[in-house]
Amino acid sequence: MDYKKISTTILENVGGVDNIANVTHCATRLRINYKKKSLVNEEALKNDEDIVGFVHKSGQIQIIFGPKVNEAYNAFLEVSKWTADGSSSGDYDEEPTEKNFMYYVGKVGNFCAASFMPMIPALIIGGLILAFRNLLINYFGVPVEGGTAEIMMAVFRAAFTYIPIYLGFNVAKTLKMPPIMGALLGALLVSPSINGVENLSLFGIAIPTVSYSSSVMPVMFGCFFMYYVDKFLVKIIPEAVIYFLRPLLTMIIVVPVTLIVLGPIGTVLSGGFASAVLWLMDHAGPIALPIYSAIYPYMVMLGLDKALSPVGIELVTSLGYNPLTLIGGFISNICIGATAVAVAVATKNNKEKKGMIMSFGITALCGVTEPAFYGALITRPIVLVGTAIGAVAGGLVGGIFGFVSYVHGGCPGLLTFLFFLNPDGSLYNFILSFVVAAVSIVTTFVATTVIIKKTKVLEKEAGASKTKEVVDAEPLIEVA
Fold first, then answer.
1. Which run of H or of E encompasses 158?
2. DSSP state, 91?
3. Which of 150, 216, 270, 418 is the most exposed place for a label (fewest CB within 10 A)?
4. Residue 479 above 70 pLDDT?
């Protein structure tokens, strides 16, 4: 795929570099915030054959690229010459955006995507390394105290223990503050002098004992508070000394409030979320998981899956396992993949389209669903009924038999089975993951195939395509 060519097309139809307010990306999407909606040619982007999928949310367009989105992002930056230094210049759209429920859903989703998605590769590495370590220790005789096990554990700790540092950096960056300030606050929370230390006090005020390793909410609360402190200080500090006083006074104000108030509150709320999910799964697991799995593709579409990232991390940190968010994502993703594969198998007369949809399906089975969802399924909404049927079936099996994930990562699919390996070495949950996957895939494929045959949706598409060819050909016949 020629990413520079596609980037040129995107740049032309987004109104040029002067209409760009910000450029980011998540696991599969290039996200471009624009200034004036009137300059964005949405139809051209939707209909471009090189663009797999297109999503338009308030003030932002999202181009679906799949796993190679980082290459597309770098190519777009090279082609557009866009830099963050110019992101605030120029006038913004004078037309007010209606601030309804979906507006705020989009805001939360975009914020969480920018804050959490850059961490996902580290979490995947850490989670898989821990799973490999447990596998080697429990089944291949690798000593727990040996250098191999210790180094693998160090990689896991580097990924998960220091989440407050990575998250602080990303949240501060998303809030348009110096990212190092958020990272500094996160590093303070996990430092040996603060993290889990008892009997601490500041100016005679007792500091609650809190373990901040792998935590999410404390550093987020601290960064939000820092944002407002920073805005206030910018207004009152003389320009001659702002470079020195601004970061110093910010931390002098933010650190005590975070350690004494915001950090403990965030920790209590995190525990409350974990307890609520645990209660839900204990009392309604066979119902909750199927429903969650079935609606998960639409949560991805709305960006709500990113908003649940902190919940998943907190569940693993608090409970030692995650019975809902990653499990539902796993079931949903492989169902999306199975649906796309069924559509590809049923596509008879177009080998190019068949191959493209099949590749989308395989990618989705491996955990990345946007190419399949936007490039093959959303234009055939009836086949998504097959996805829902398979997700409910897989969710029922998972909910009834207590299917959980022991690590948090991204893009759950057939390549992340080690997420489900119990650290104590037992294979029950690991074997259950294969059962759930088999039920989900087979049920989805069969249901989708039946729906395609009953509705003849692909035959109707082929007929419509032929009709269009005839209509397009008619003027040529008349001219001849």
1. helix 147-160
2. P
3. 150
4. no
